[in-house]
Predict the 3D structure of the following.
Amino acid sequence: MDNRIYLNQTIDVKIDRPIGSSHPNYPDHIYLVNYGYVPNTISGDGEEIDCYILGEYKSLKEYRGTCIAKIHRLEDDDDKLIIAPENKNYTNSEIRLLTDFQEKFFKSVIIRSQNYLEFNKNIPELSVTNLENSLNFYKTAGFKIEYDRPENKFSFISLGKIQFMLQEIAPNGKWDVSPLIPPFGNGKNFQLEIDNLNEIYTNFKNSKYQITFDIVENWYRQGNSLQFFSLFYFDS
């Protein structure tokens, strides 16, 4: 059964292993969060679907909360739902940390709802003269629009874990505290880690963007070791 149907749903959970209790077969294994199951369900292993309860730090017997994610174990059929209080969310890293006491023994991936977006801690917002042209440029690099506000000429874009906000410059914009004079971008240099540099480079070439110089490989010292970066520049 595809347990993704529970994502973003309100779930009633029976707690059979409350926080601070021991595993029934392994007394030294202590549960650091409340752990239970969804009654009258069947998971891939033939038992009820198990759940971790996050955000509640007292021993519970039952709980109603929102399913914010699913831990999908790659080597068995015993997926786990992540249940949290209403309007409370946890990042994938936080879920890993809070369930590591048990999930560290298994290989797994965290599955979220299709519209889930995990925001970076630092997201540059770039002022652009023409949002449509800028979006065409970033789409050529493989970025996708996560959400936008066309009435404000604003878009939030991402490529893997890279995130940017784009805002078209408006007359008398309150955030523009001094005149913006071309060429834009002087003094700014973003380091973006990607897996398909050659493919992106080819897309820019095929789309007739002017490349200032071709791909080069640079080595830099970091402590006692060397690291290399491949990069290319273009005329924006």
